[in-house]
């Protein structure tokens, strides 16, 4: 009896993958190839090595106090003389690349950024030891400046000064998403029935969260067009002119299409914001570091934009859960709250009165922090301090890589994998200057047309829905792809992550998919004859 795959149609692609994995791994004589998830199989080693070596220095600093009581006991770190002790510790490990990196990092922080070396070392030592609550809860003070410098260099290229942006360290980009949705609701910035625009296709939680009962938002789809290399047509962006659209959520570069917004789209959005200065934009820019000459929406509309960035993909650190929310100190959300009717302000004052005697001065980004811990636990809010130290190490690693060697290697890696995949499919993709190539969408119609012409492509679209085809691919070849429909794409396609397998495995995927296409073509010819 044939399996009824329709029962899986409403599942999130990330939950559906478990069923696909079950099918793909059901035959012991073959290797299952999971190209579904975006967790990379590469990672940045030097900033991790620096983290572990710095931990040894931090322990030595702690043992300068109270160790007379027990060899297992340490005490409060002494700031006096800490820079000299750091130099001495690193000189004893000068043969290690991570020691040279840490010495250079201190020099960069002191000489390039103008931050006090002893305060930086104290913050890092106490942070990596995790001996205090995060203070300030939003983000450690010098860590915010260093991480902020990295994020703004990569996302806006200096168009927004560091001192104009506040950052909140979060448990990855996923926590950032959850916090923004929650705090916007709690502060009356979105209400049930409000319209929110989504740049589609998009990371599926952005589709699923608005539909939850507690939000009940009406989604306005801003659909990218495959015929425009997955850019947004002007007619789609014009939907943002609707005064009932409260916020525009987008992933840039996109997921799953994996292209950055072109200059035309950015300029169009900037023009719309001039007409609608109250429009709020959330841009999730996690893949921006893989793009050439990337420019975030935050660069052109900083007062209207919430910037979300995650370290997970570029540094291979999904398990660390490292992300930030960035907001301009002069932003439309704070202005909207300030202009609320008095009865709304009174309600919000009751919510936040335990934090400050003047709730009207409480910025939205600080409300995010408080809401992340149900307000009452604001005093113990914040990302764990060892996580923040690792985030600083990643940021300094990128800031000090003046020649961009790490970035060049990663870009080359994912692009070689894409070329290998499509070469075996005999459907070579043309170069797109806006393509990021972290993912690729194997479009059923386009690939079928390139292989065997228009008639076969039309037949394939009629014969096999993409959802059923992905189940057959998993069952017959052991390959796991995610359905593009789960990300809001209107065309039948499968998302392939180009980050989590090796080149030879993408060659195997391309060959297997080509073999399936040949089998379908044989069936097509029989039916035609």
From TrEMBL:
Enzyme Commission number(s) of this protein: 4.1.1.12
Keyword Isomerase in annotation: no
Molecular function via GO: aspartate 4-decarboxylase activity; pyridoxal phosphate binding; transaminase activity
InterPro entries registered for this protein in UniProt: Aminotransferase_I/II_large, Aspartate_4-decarboxylase, Ethylene_sulfur-biosynth, PyrdxlP-dep_Trfase, PyrdxlP-dep_Trfase_major, PyrdxlP-dep_Trfase_small
A GO biological process held by the record: aspartate metabolic process
Alphabetized SUPFAM superfamilies for the sequence: PLP-dependent transferases
Domain called Aminotransferase class I/classII large: residue spans: 173-504
Superkingdom as given in the UniProt entry: Bacteria
Keyword terms of this UniProt record: Aminotransferase, Lyase, Pyridoxal phosphate, Transferase
UniProt protein name: Aspartate 4-decarboxylase
Annotated source species: Aristophania vespae
């Amino acid at each position: 009896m044939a399996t009824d795959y329709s029962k899986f149609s409403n599942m999130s692609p990330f939950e559906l993958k478990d069923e696909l994995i079950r099918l793909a791994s059901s035959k012991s004589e073959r290797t299952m190839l999971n190209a579904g998830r975006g967790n990379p199989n590469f990672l940045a080693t030097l900033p991790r090595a620096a983290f572990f070596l710095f931990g040894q220095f931090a322990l030595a600093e702690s043992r300068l106090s109270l160790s007379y009581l027990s060899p297992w006991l340490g005490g409060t770190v002494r700031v006096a003389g800490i820079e000299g002790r750091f130099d001495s510790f690193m000189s004893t490990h000068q043969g290690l690349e991570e020691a040279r990196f840490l010495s250079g990092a201190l020099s960069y922080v002191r000489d390039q950024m103008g931050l006090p070396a002893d305060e930086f070392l104290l913050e890092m030592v106490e942070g990596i030891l995790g001996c205090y609550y995060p203070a300030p809860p939003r983000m450690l003070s010098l860590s915010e400046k260093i991480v902020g410098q990295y994020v703004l260099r990569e996302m806006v290229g200096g168009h927004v000064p560091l001192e104009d942006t506040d950052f909140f360290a979060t448990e990855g980009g996923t926590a950032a998403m959850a916090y923004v949705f929650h705090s916007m609701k709690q502060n009356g910035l979105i209400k049930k029935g409000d319209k929110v625009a989504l740049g589609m296709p998009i990371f599926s939680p952005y589709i699923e969260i608005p539909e939850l009962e507690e939000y009940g938002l009406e989604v306005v789809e801003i659909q990218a067009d495959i015929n425009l290399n997955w850019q947004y047509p002007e007619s789609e962006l014009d939907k943002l002119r609707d005064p009932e659209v409260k916020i525009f959520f987008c992933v840039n570069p996109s997921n799953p299409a994996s292209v950055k917004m072109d200059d035309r789209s950015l300029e169009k959005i900037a023009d719309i914001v001039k007409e609608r200065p109250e429009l709020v934009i959330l841009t999730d820019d996690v893949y921006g570091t893989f793009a050439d000459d990337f420019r975030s929406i935050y660069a052109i509309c900083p007062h209207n934009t919430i910037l979300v960035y995650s370290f997970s993909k570029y540094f291979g650190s999904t398990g660390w859960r490292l992300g930030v929310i960035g907001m301009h100190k002069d932003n439309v959300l704070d202005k909207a709250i300030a202009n609320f009717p008095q009865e709304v302000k009174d309600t919000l004052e009751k919510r936040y009165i335990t934090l400050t005697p003047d709730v009207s001065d409480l910025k939205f980004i600080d409300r995010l922090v408080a809401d992340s811990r149900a307000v009452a636990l604001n005093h113990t809010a914040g990302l764990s301090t060892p996580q923040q130290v690792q985030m600083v190490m990643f940021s300094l690693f990128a800031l000090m890589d003046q020649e961009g060697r790490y970035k060049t290697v990663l870009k080359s890696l994912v692009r070689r994998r894409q070329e290998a995949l499509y070469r075996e499919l005999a459907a070579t993709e043309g170069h797109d200057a806006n393509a990021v190539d972290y993912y690729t969408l194997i479009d059923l119609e386009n690939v079928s047309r390139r292989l065997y012409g228009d008639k076969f492509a039309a037949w394939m679209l009629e014969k096999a829905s993409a959802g059923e085809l992905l189940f057959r691919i998993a069952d017959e070849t052991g390959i796991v792809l995610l359905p593009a429909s789960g990300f809001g794409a209107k065309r039948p396609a499968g998302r392939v992550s180009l980050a989590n397998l090796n080149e030879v495995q993408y060659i195997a995927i391309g060959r297997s998919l080509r073999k399936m296409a040949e089998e379908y073509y044989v069936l097509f010819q029989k039916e035609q004859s």
